[in-house]
UniProtKB/TrEMBL annotation:
Pfam families: PIF1 (PF05970), Pif1_2B_dom (PF21530). This is ATP-dependent DNA helicase. It comes from Solanum commersonii (Commerson's wild potato). Belongs to the helicase family. InterPro entries: DNA_helicase_pif1-like_DEAD, P-loop_NTPase, Pif1-like_2B_dom. Its cofactor is Mg(2+). Residues 13-77 form the DNA helicase Pif1-like DEAD-box helicase domain. One of its GO terms (biological process) is telomere maintenance. It catalyses: ATP + H2O = ADP + phosphate + H(+). It comes from the Eukaryota.
Amino acid sequence: MNSKIYLEMLASFWGDFRQTLLLLSNEKNEDFISQSLLYSHIWNHLEKLCLSENMRAKKDPAFCAYLIRIGNGQEKTNSCNKIEIPNNFVIPFTEEIESLNLLFNVTYPDFHTFYSNPSFITFRIILTTKNDFVDEINDMRIHRFPDDATVYTTIDETIEPNDQCQFEDFLHTLHPANLPPYGLTLKKNCLLILLRKLNPTEGLCNGTRLICHDFKSHVISATIFSGDFTNKHINKT
């Protein structure tokens, strides 16, 4: 990078322009591109580093190639200029609960046989678009685990102590992004994903996956099952 642009300071920009274009109201597709970093006056002064390998799906080269074709605008389209998703990628929608159950069965086949296998749980995930959907799917999935459930509740406090009685129940209904719900239901062998960087030196970072083993009133016993600290046992309050 040209050091004169940022007065000797190092700055980095990252992202996939095929996925993270600007959203501009009442504008055309070409306007999204013209307002992006690609057309900035600093673009020609930047050093470009490109990632070329899909680390998450490298064991499925056909799917990786499919994503690249879409990103490069090379995937075939129908008469409406739309890309048709292959049938083997699609779960037919009939009714909400029935279709969700079908999605679970496809994602976690023979769940009651393999639910205690950490690899079976941690290497599969269901993505969705809104936090409300995440909570609904998590509630449905946690009920599939055997054993008794343990529920941990948050302590919600208002800034002004005098408002606590009036707004406490209302605060319980709020689900802010990157925070667990008011009532967190866990069962043995279920998966936890950390949303905060608690202790990087112990492997407890944002995105770390853990398998739950035991629960006390204020302590969760679990094993890390991702990254360099895989199989490390932790007890967290």
